[in-house]
Amino acid sequence: MTVQTAVLIETLVALGAEVRWCSCNIFSTQDHAAAAVVVGPHGTPEEPKGVPVYAWKGETLPEYWWATEKMLTWPGGEGPNMILDDGGDATLLVHKGVQYEKAGVVPDAEDDAPEEWALILETLRASLAADSGKWTKVAEGLRGVTEETTTGVLRLYQLAAAGELLFPAINVNDSVTKSKFDNRYGIRHSLVDGINRGTDVLIAGKVAVICGYGDVGKGSAESLRGQGARVVVTEIDPICALQAAMDGYEVRTLDEVVGKADIIITTTGNKDVVTADHMARMKHQTILGNVGHFDNELDIAGLTRYPGIRRVNIKPQVDEWVFPDGHTIIVLSEGRLLNLGNATGHPSFVMSSSFSNQVIAQVELFTKHQEYDREVYRLPKKLDEKVARIHLEALGGSLTKLTKEQAEYIDVDVEGPFKSEHYRY
Ligand code: NAI
Question: How far is residue 24's CA from residue 121's CA, in Å, rounded to a whole number?
Fold first, then answer.
């Protein structure tokens, strides 16, 4: 819930949607944006005429799930007919709700589920007690979901592979004009913004470790190199690791460099990348943060339980953790998306590119849902190119036009699409 998503909401409303909104992260709400959306352009604080928003900066996790359920609970019993998701928590809540409605009972815990999923189960237990068919009704009314980010998309493909996806989905993340722009150039802006606002430390000359060299990792590494940091990359994928090496970064394991890093940032979308043991071995006042979607990249729970550890809150979203030997580490946004928690996320221009894809995907699934199965789809390349064309124009770039002969020679249409599906950009 940021100023950028406020404009996305206005766009959806202008297209005729009735919208309810919540945040996908407990720290990323910009309260002024939330307030403006609630009041609306024609309302007043006393008489709001905008969109219901269930989000504020600094929610607790129980409040977060409460807000997600509220968002999905339409007045009058009508459910939503579309979800626009970021990270997949709304989609997850509906799927879990249906699963346990069918089972007739919500278990106390799920095997192998993250600790905080206990809160989903609690939310569901309460909602199922009030209305035992609620989530089945919600799922039946849904024409589809459009998913914003890598982590949410992963969950959708897992559901589809298991034959459990309850409605069609469009993977917005893998539009080229989303992941190759927002994930990369967006983070190139907002990562250093978050570190600066959180710590104001001089980045030049420092050793910065970026865990993961996917789209977000590439932008993160560039971001810190741009400030003069000596950047080291960790990767599990030899292709991305080789890319990092050829882009001029040192490639090491975290174990090799953990004791000499000044800044460590995770960008993997994976769990347990930085353990409490790593944290204990960090240098005095190492800055530790995450920009992957969920906070489980850093073992904050393990840090909290570390024998003799003490937490000193420096300011909102900045904590210094003091180890028994006296050395400390500085953790940003409790391990949650620091570019949103400590700063204001990606700037509008790059989000415009992402959200153009979101809006196109919403319109597509809403108007043509009968043409889609319970699978995960991507938008056609032609629309991806359209989003790029519009944004290039806005930047004042001039695009070269193919001649008919050139187009025939490379076997494409003069108007595009210009690349095959397997082209990687
Ligand atoms: P990606 O899949 O392109 O990159 C992740 C990289 O991490 C991969 O190259 C993978 O091989 C590597 N990796 C996985 N486990 C690792 C480990 N244990 N150690 C080192 N490297 C490891 O994904 P992408 O698009 O870069 O997204 C990463 C995360 O960032 C996702 O959770 C995504 O949802 C999130 N995201 C966050 C944004 C933000 O504003 N903070 C914006 C866009 C995405």
Answer: 18
